Every structure is written in C-alpha cells, then in structure tokens.
C-alpha cells in the first residue's frame, strides 16, 4: 500500500468532537470566503448569528435564515455532523462501497438513516459527470448488471435466461468510458442504458469525449456508428484480448471488475432506479484510488457541500421515493 493510502489517521476522525466536525463543514462550505458564512440566496457577505449555528441575512430585501447545510445535500439534516464525517470516512476507505446495514451498525443509527445518507453521497458524486470531458486515449465498453432469474426447482421448469423472451426487464447495461493515459489522472464516465446500442454510445461520446481523442472499443456492433465521430481502434475479443501493438481495453475492464466485486460482495443487488448512482460512486473510487485518503476525504466533503439539495432524497421515507424516476438513458435521451 502507498504511504498516502493511510495518511488520515482513523483515530483522529473518530475522536472528533461535534464542534470540530461542524468546523470542517464550515471550512469547506464557505471556502471561497475564507470560511466565513454568506447568504446562499442573495450572496450577502455580512449575515449575523441568530442562534447556535444559524444565521440570518442582513439585507432588508432578503432576510433569509440559513445554516451551513442549507441548500446542500444535507439540508434539513437531523444527523450530527460527527456521524456524517464518520460516514464519509467509511465510504472512502471501502474499495467496493459500504452496505447500509454495515453503516447503521457503525453509526448506531436506523437502517433508513444509513441508506439515505449513502444515497445522498452517491447522487452528489454522480452530478460531477455533467462537466467531464475525456481526452487522450479513451476506452469504451458496456457491462450488463442484475436481472438474474431465480431458477425453478425442477429442471424441466427452468427457463433459459439468455433468451430475450425470458428476461425480467431488470437487467441493465452500464456504458462506461474511461481515459487510459499513462501520466495523467484517468477519469471514468458512466451511463445506465437498456442495452448496448449505437444511439446511446453516440450520445455519450459526442458529449463527453474530445473530438481529438483516440477511442478504443471492442467488436460489438453498437460501436460501429462511432467511426467518423472520433479516431477509433477496435479490439476483437473473439480473437484476442490484446492487439500485437499492445492495444487493449484493460483499463475499462478494471473498472468493471470493481463493479462485479461490489455487486457480488457488498450490495448483492442493484435496483434499476438507483443503479446510476452506485456506478457513479464506484467510478469515483476507481478514479481516486491512487490519491491519498486525506485527498479523497476533502474531495468528497467538498462535493457534498457544493451540490444542491436533492429533489429525489429529501423526504425519501415520506413518500418522496415514489416520485424518483429510473436513471436510465433511452436511445440517447437522458432520464426525466
């Protein structure tokens, strides 16, 4: 293990008092103002404290009341700042992700609390993908996840899960694009689609891949339409895993290996509705695995304090979950 893989002492994290944990949120939320609070509604730099950890804007036209978590993914939170910090620590130190049941025991909270907390982290990380532009050498591939049929007891009643008519509609394809450059931090972009098809691949490459990049794909027909969009190299996996000149898709397969381990070893099941968020977090873990723990901790805390309040997860257990749409791209069109 690299030395920076343990550059954040867990004893220091778990021994933080509530005031210290709150101070971390303040420093990251208002980092662009030196850690001093300002109004999230109008930007006024001179709010005043009205009671413990709450502020009011001094502008007569605004007078908004706010806290350090107002307008972030943890708006209206009831969990202590220390337990949120502990949850972040658990997430960054788990290479394949954290199960909500495991976190609920660690933090001594209900399963419901741990589940929504982790989903908020995943959704916040997923929002970073909108601005990603991949450069240099980029590999693209798809992996099917979930939708496993339960086998019948008797052999004659069992169905062939490979046939389209026997599928249950829960098997989704994760389309992933990943940079494969030697001396640069490589980034991963994921999209959940129904199956590998040309329209979804075209939409992802057109938006997130630099036109001057070199795209590497396998022999799947879904990537035939990408010829002409960017420079392209194909690797026929039915013949060999690597070309004679060393061209391969090992970088993207490395990410899919992490997905498979998370699926079988941690989560055991990915809901279609939330699969996109799980993939976003696993992609972030893949991208930052060579960064130090201190860097990962700061990056995740910076992310959650700069993302807006989730319209999907705020009030999740008060029927808000019923309004969440499946985060699946259909024929190049984004989810609603």
From TrEMBL:
InterPro entries the UniProt entry points to: Tnp_ISXO2-like (IPR024445), Transposase_Zn_ribbon (IPR024442)
Ranges where the ISXO2-like transposase domain occurs: 133-287
Pfam families: DDE_Tnp_IS1595 (PF12762), Zn_ribbon_IS1595 (PF12760)
NCBIfam families from the UniProt entry: transpos_IS1595
Protein name (database record): IS1595 family transposase
Taxonomic source organism: Agrobacterium pusense
Lineage of producing organism: Bacteria, Pseudomonadati, Pseudomonadota, Alphaproteobacteria, Hyphomicrobiales
